[in-house]
C-alpha cells in the first residue's frame, strides 16, 4: 500500500466517499495539501485534516472503503499523518468522532484520549480526542507543547494555561525555565 498526498485527479473518487463536505471545500483541502490517500490497486482510504484554532492539527475525516476495512489501512493512514506532523514540528493532534461509531475504538488503540465532547443538533454525542505525538519536555510536571499560528512558532505551557511566542531558541530556554 502506498500513502501519498491527494491530487486533483483524485477528487471524483473522494467526493463519492465523503458526503459531509462541499465540493469547493474538499478541492481547496486537496490544493492546500491537507488530504492523504492510501492506494492499493486504487484508493482504499483517505484522511483529511485542518487546524483547530488555526494551530493544532485536527483530523477532520478518516475514510476506508467498506470492503477494505479491518485490514489496518486506517491505522497506517493515521500513523503516516502523525509522522508528517512530527516532521512539521507539531507535538499534538486532535480529532472527533461520534460516540456511536466504531472508529472511536481505533483512536483509543492508537493512543488518543477523550478530552471532552458536545451534542450536535439532532446527532449523537461527538467525542473530542487528543494525542501527544512525542514525549514533551517537562518542567516541574508541566507539559510543554509546540504549535504554529500564522507561521509563527509558539510554546504552550500546561495545556493552554499560558502561552509564549518563540522568536529564538533563547526564548524557548527562557520560557522553559519559567515553568
Commentary on this structure:
The protein is of the alpha+beta class. The chain has 2 domains: 2-134, Aminopeptidase; 139-179. The chain is built from 5 helices and 11 strands, in the order βααβββαβαββββββα. The chain has helices at residues 11-17, 23-31, 73-87, 103-109, 169-178, and strands at 2-5, 35-39, 43-52, 56-64, 92-98, 113-118, 126-132, 138-139, 142-149, 152-157, 162-166. Strands 1-2-3-4-5-7-6 form a 7-stranded mixed sheet, sandwiched between helices. α3 (73-87) links the parallel β4 and β5 (92-98). The chain is globular. The N and C termini lie far apart (44 Å). The model is unreliable at 135-144, 156-167 and 175-179 (pLDDT under 50).
- Overall spatial form: globular
Q: Characterize the largest beta sheet: strand count, sense, and whether it forms a barrel.
A: 7 strands, mixed
Order of helices and strands: EHHEEEHEHEEEEEEH
CATH superfamily of the largest domain: Gcn5-related N-acetyltransferase (GNAT)
CATH architecture of the largest domain: 3-Layer(aba) Sandwich
What key attributes describe this structure?
11 strands; 4-stranded antiparallel beta sheet; 179 residues; 2 domains; GNAT_dom; alpha+beta; Aminopeptidase; 27% helix; 5 helices; acyltransferase activity, transferring groups other than amino-acyl groups
Please specify the SSE layout and strand pairing:
Blueprint: E1 2-5, H1 11-17, H2 23-31, E2 35-39, E3 43-52, E4 56-64, H3 73-87, E5 92-98, H4 103-109, E6 113-118, E7 126-132, E8 138-139, E9 142-149, E10 152-157, E11 162-166, H5 169-178
Amino acid at each position: 500500500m502506498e500513502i501519498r498526498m491527494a491530487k486533483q485527479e483524485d477528487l471524483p473518487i473522494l467526493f463519492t466517499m465523503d458526503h459531509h463536505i462541499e465540493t469547493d471545500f474538499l478541492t481547496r483541502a486537496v490544493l492546500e495539501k491537507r488530504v492523504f490517500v492510501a492506494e492499493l490497486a486504487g484508493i482504499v482510504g483517505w484522511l483529511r485534516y485542518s487546524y483547530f484554532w488555526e494551530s493544532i492539527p485536527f483530523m477532520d475525516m478518516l475514510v476506508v472503503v467498506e470492503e477494505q476495512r479491518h485490514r489496518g489501512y486506517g491505522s497506517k493512514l493515521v500513523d503516516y499523518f502523525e509522522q508528517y506532523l512530527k516532521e512539521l514540528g507539531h507535538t499534538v493532534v486532535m480529532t472527533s468522532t461520534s460516540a456511536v461509531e466504531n472508529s472511536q475504538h481505533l483512536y483509543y488503540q492508537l493512543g488518543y484520549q477523550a478530552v471532552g465532547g458536545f451534542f450536535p443538533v439532532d446527532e449523537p454525542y461527538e467525542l473530542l480526542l487528543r494525542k501527544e505525538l512525542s514525549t514533551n519536555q517537562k518542567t516541574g510536571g508541566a507539559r510543554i507543547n509546540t504549535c504554529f499560528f500564522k507561521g509563527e512558532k509558539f510554546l504552550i505551557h500546561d495545556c493552554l494555561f499560558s502561552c509564549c511566542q518563540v522568536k529564538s531558541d533563547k526564548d524557548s530556554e527562557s520560557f522553559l525555565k519559567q515553568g
